Amino acid sequence: MRKNNFILWVAGLIITIMTGCNDMDNYSTSPNHYLTFSIDTLSFDTVFTTIGSTTNYFMIYNRNEEDLKINKISLTGGSNSNFRINVDGRKGDSFNEIPIWKKDSLYVAVEVTVDPNDENSPFLIYDSIVFTTNGVTQSILLEAYGQNAHILKGGTIFEKDTTLTSERPYLIYDSIMIPEGVTVNIAQGASFYMHHKAKWLVDGTLKTNGTQNEPVLFRGDRLNNYSTYISYDNIPTQWDGLYFGAFSFDNELNYTLIRNGVSGLTCKESTPDKRKITISNSQIKNMDGNILYAVNCDIEAVNTEFSNASDY
Q1: Whole-model pTM above 0.85?
Q2: Is 177 exposed, middle or buried (0-12, 13-18, 19+ CB in 10 A)?
Q3: Long-range contacts of 44-47, Cβ-Cβ distance < 8 Å, separation of 24 or more
Q4: What is the pLDDT of residues 75-95, one digit of tens each?
Q5: DSSP letter (8 states) at residue 114
């Protein structure tokens, strides 16, 4: 009796599995059963040319009571598009016959790399992802602002007096070094986007010449958001900091914004017989370590904010 019950149970299980498989192949063909999406436009914050973006995501939903098969998903720009997509773990620019079960969803990941051009100001690029299901065409718009930049990699040493202008921002990898006897002037409105662990090593002299309307900016290079409400620009440890050597004197920071690094200004032990640095109308904030660290230095700071440090 028990053996017969077991055989009946196994047979029922096999029938259930086979029925389930048949149901999974029973896709709706109704044009009234279409997809919904978590967004209608996927936007990227400013992306530096030639530097790939972070990955953004959106969701595809089948909110219907029947399974669907997406006949085609494709980038309008195809293989020539600046955008790259990954559909449910698969990379490419075109996908066919993608199943999505009833009340289920799929992830789509998107990245973009912007080609350089002659523009100094940010410029818009766009594309779209087209979805075809049961003869119904839907699309998601993709857009990104590209920004040409001076990209400095591998450690940069200024061997002679130099003026850095503001026509394009600077994307800094590794370190910037100013040797003794060399002065680097930074024009008003210049901006420096510092990659992880990037820093300034000043043994000569650094002078920033910002104005109230066009300050000089030092910040991390992550331009996207950490979460819906928090920008990476408000999070410390995005880069290292500015370091002034023992024999670096007569530095000036005028209308300068320095934020979200490991440290702000670090001055090695020196002598108070000469002015180390003059800081005016500036803001130094959001550091994981010290905002200002100096030993035996002559420093003058006027109308300047030092705020939000884990240490000093």
Answers
A1: no
A2: middle
A3: 44/112, 44/143, 44/144, 44/145, 44/224, 45/145, 45/223, 45/224, 45/225, 46/122, 46/145, 46/146, 46/147, 46/223, 47/112, 47/113, 47/114, 47/144, 47/145, 47/146, 47/147, 47/223
A4: 999 999 999 999 988 999 999
A5: P
